[in-house]
């Protein structure tokens, strides 16, 4: 089965409020949508957190995922996709001898932001169960699609966080 996980993040300028959201569907069925408001520094952190939370939800709620399944994570944040891929690519290029295992652990420990570390950890765990691909989508198009839904969820959570 193919799952589409639309993710988005938002940041309120001049505050420490961020929001992350995701919307998951199959080709024809709605599965779930969630939104979270919390404290953070910027929208890229919120975007990375949304990716991690979508992966975590799939791991916890779709235990039958297998290598025959594919999850496509769709984000309008090239920066978030690049950050996650860069860390993963660096780690994947480290061999498994003892010195390199230590370097891999140090690489992971050098990720200062826990939201980004969570996203990478959840993504790696999900990749052990099924195929995972990223897709960059254009932000803020005037079409109602999964990205639009995730964007509106994040903005709503941000608005409610300021109450």
What's the total helix number?
A: 5
Classified by CATH, the class is Alpha Beta
Q: Looking at this structure, what is the CATH superfamily?
A: Ribonuclease H-like superfamily/Ribonuclease H
Tell me the overall shape: globular
CATH topology: Nucleotidyltransferase, domain 5
Q: What report would you give on this structure?
A:
With 163 residues, the protein is an alpha/beta fold. The protein has a single domain, classed as 2-Layer Sandwich (Nucleotidyltransferase, domain 5). The protein contains 5 helices and 5 strands. The protein has helices at 43-61, 78-92, 98-109, 114-129, 146-161; strands at residues 2-11, 17-25, 30-39, 70-75, 131-136. A hairpin with a 4-residue loop joins strand 2 (17-25) and strand 3 (30-39). The model has no long low-confidence stretch (mean pLDDT 84).
Give a brief description.
Helix content is 48%, strand content 25%.
What features would you highlight for this structure?
alpha/beta, 5 helices, 48% helix, Nucleotidyltransferase, domain 5, 163 residues, globular
List the helices and strands and how they pair.
Blueprint: E1 2-11, E2 17-25, E3 30-39, H1 43-61, E4 70-75, H2 78-92, H3 98-109, H4 114-129, E5 131-136, H5 146-161
Parallel strand pairs: 1-4, 4-5
Antiparallel strand pairs: 1-2, 2-3
Helix pairs in contact: 1-2, 1-4
């Amino acid at each position: 089965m193919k799952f589409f996980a639309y993710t988005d993040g938002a940041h309120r300028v001049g505050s420490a409020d961020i929001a992350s959201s995701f919307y998951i569907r199959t080709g024809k069925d709605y599965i779930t949508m969630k939104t979270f408001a919390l404290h953070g520094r910027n929208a890229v952190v919120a975007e990375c957190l949304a990716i991690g939370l979508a992966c975590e939800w799939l791991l916890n709620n779709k235990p039958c995922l297998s290598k025959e399944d594919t999850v496509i994570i769709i984000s309008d944040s090239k920066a978030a996709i690049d950050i996650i891929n860069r860390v993963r690519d660096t780690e994947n290029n480290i061999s498994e001898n003892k010195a390199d295992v230590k370097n891999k652990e140090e690489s992971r420990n050098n990720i200062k932001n826990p939201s980004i570390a969570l996203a990478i950890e959840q993504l790696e765990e999900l990749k052990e169960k099924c195929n995972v691909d990223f897709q960059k989508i254009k932000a803020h198009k005037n079409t109602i699609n999964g990205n639009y839904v995730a964007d509106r969820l994040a903005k709503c959570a941000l608005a409610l966080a300021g109450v």
